[in-house]
Amino acid sequence: MNNLKTSIAALSLVLSGLFGCSSEDGKQVSDSVQANVKPNIILFFVDDLGWTSRESKNSAFETPNIEKLAAEGMEFSSMYIASPTCSPSRATLVTGQHPARLKMVRHIPHKPKYGFDKFGRTTQQWNLWEKDPAQVPSVNWLDTKYLTYAEALKTQGYYNMFLGKWHLGHEGFHPTDNGFDQQIGTTNWGHPPSYYPPYFKNTDVYKEVKDTYLTDKLTQDAVAFINSYDKSQPFMMSMWYYGVHTPLQGRRDLFEHFKQKGLADNEAHLAAMTKAVDESIGDIRQALESKGMANNTVIMFLSDQGGLLDNSPLRGTKRVDTLFEGGARVPFIVSWPGVTQSGVINDSVVQSTDLFPTLVELTGGSVDKYDNLDGVSLLDTIKNNQKLNRGEPIFGYRAYQDLYASVRENDWKLFAYRSGKLELFNIAKDPSEQNEIAKQHPAIVEELKQKLIDWEKDVSMEAYSGVQ
Q1: Measured between alpha carbons, how far is residue 16 from residues 161, 239, 365 in Å?
Q2: Using alpha carbons only, what angle is made at residue 152 by residues 147 and 156, rounded to the nearest 5 degrees?
Q3: What gap in Å lies between CA 120 and CA 114, rounded to an integer?
Q4: For position 73, what pLDDT does the model report?
Q5: Distance between CA 224 and CA 227 in Å, rounded?
Q6: Which among 209, 148, 144, 224 has a CA at the least distance from the CA of 180?
Q7: Alpha-carbon dihedral 155, 304, 215, 75, rounded to 10 degrees
Q8: Order of all β-strands in the sheet with 159-164
Q9: Which parts of 111-184 fold into alpha helices (H)?
Q10: Which of 22, 93, 191, 400 has a CA-to-CA distance to 154 between 20 and 30 Å?
Q11: Other CB atoms within 10 A of residue 205 CB
Q12: Cis peptide before 407, with omega less than 30 degrees from 0?
């Protein structure tokens, strides 16, 4: 992998010479790149936004811009996060590798008892979790040896902008250390103590801001980037929101709006935070329109895990039964003007591991160049709205509680516990996962269990297995 990363860096320099563009300033690109008219890409990655946290699924929310995005593009109804928790979900997104393979099976904790200082830094590579029955070590940063989608897209002539929550390591492991050309609003922290200034402790990031709501501040910077963008090369903007992660703190005017609608405090705060993200998406898309970029920009919208509060009718949240549908299944929308069909829902089983290969192929690259990818490209599915045949299951994995793994293949979903317990559900017939049917289908249980055993060996996690 290090050799591949070095080769890509060298190729970027070659492209700089051939195309007249630099990954640093990006002022010019070759006629051949311009002739391809590669699309800009914006990835909206929201924190803790549940699958049902939008007005089309829950009338408590107001999300007209998300609904508009879905109406204009393609929505995947069965998108799963490989490890539904903050840091692992992000590591998978940027590398295309499963968190278990990366050995990042929990969030980066940042607390002194885990070896972190007041600045969110540590020299300890691993952390252990007291309540994890298997005591699986989890890394405290994403090593720069792993290739990121920013580095992959750079070889295709892209400028990479990152805004917001990273949560994959302190300085030395930040976005700009991992192939991104620029980062804004990024700290060592996984969430702010407050969504009003001062947002963060022990950092100079946004220290000058006086009263702006954090989601709005990131939006202002994203809009400013679009308005001032004058490079000839296409860009990818990774807009990774801190919201709607705790603390539950809605923008003041929006909180009052939802309180007047009769919502309890926590629900009003969450609805307000969600509406602020929705407004942000609308503002950024309007900036694209004003700049004349909208028709050549791919928009992707995704969440990192299920919601903190009620995710009904799905079972589970980000903290309880997290590998169940309510914790692991998230919204995923792709809008590509002139390519995606409008308002279609695709029922293919897809996973966050699929984003990296999709971005590579979408920008003209070859997936075959990259090692250890755990997903598949969705490009043909996006273009043709066809059913994806993965040919293998998808696996969920976390290292907090007894429940640690899931196996989803076709309509079946198996849960594995460290204690050895196995549970089986038919998601097509029972999306709320209320009817456990392992005893009725022992052959299915055994088949999926064996696939889990084989997969654990493939990602070198068999030592912590609950089924081997």
Answers
A1: 18, 26, 17
A2: 165
A3: 11
A4: 97
A5: 5
A6: 148
A7: 80
A8: 182-184, 159-164, 235-240, 40-46, 297-303, 329-335, 74-80, 344-351
A9: 149-154
A10: 191
A11: 16
A12: no
Which amino acid does the sequence have at 429?
A: K
pTM recorded for the entire structure: 0.93
State the residue for tokens 């029972």.
Answer: 430
265-291 and 64-72 helices, crossing angle to 10° = 50
Written as one letter, the residue type at 195 is Y
Comparing 2 with 453, the larger pLDDT belongs to 453
Question: How far apart are the C-alpha atoms of 164 and 156, rounded to whole Å?
Answer: 24
Signed CA dihedral, 67, 190, 227, 25: sign only: negative
Name the DSSP class of 364: T
Q: Identify which of 284, 43, 288 has the alpha carbon closest to the alpha carbon of residue 158.
A: 43
Report which DSSP code applies to 176. Answer: G
Look-up: residue for tokens 């969030």? 107
Collect all residues with Cβ–Cβ distance below 8 Å to 111 and sequence separation of at least 6: none
Among all chains, which residue has been given the structure tokens 């990273």?
A: 166
Taking residues 85-101, report their average pLDDT.
98
- Phi and psi torsions of 458, nearest 5°: -60, -35
CA torsion, ordered 284, 290, 295, 298, to nearest 10 deg: -20
Q: SS3 helix, strand, coil % of the chain, rounded to 5?
A: 35, 15, 50
Chain-wide mean pLDDT for the chain? Answer: 93
Quote the tokens at residue 119. Answer: 């600045």
Helices (DSSP H) in 229-333: which residue ranges? 252-260, 265-291, 325-328
- Longest Cα–Cα distance of the chain, Å, equals 64
Lookup: tokens for 148: 């990121």
Provide the residue type at 450 as one letter.
Q
Task: Please give the C-alpha separations between residue 89 and each of 240, 383, 393, 405, in angstroms, as whole numbers.
Answer: 12, 25, 18, 15
pLDDT, tens digit, 9 for 90 and up, residues 23-51 = 333 333 333 334 458 999 999 999 999 99
How many H helices and E strands in the chain? 13, 14
**Contact 164/240 with Cβ under 8 angstroms?**
yes
- List strand residue ranges (DSSP E) for 82-212, in order: 126-127, 138-139, 159-164, 182-184
Give the tokens for residue 39: 């699309």
Cβ–Cβ under 8 Å, residues 247 and 172 = no
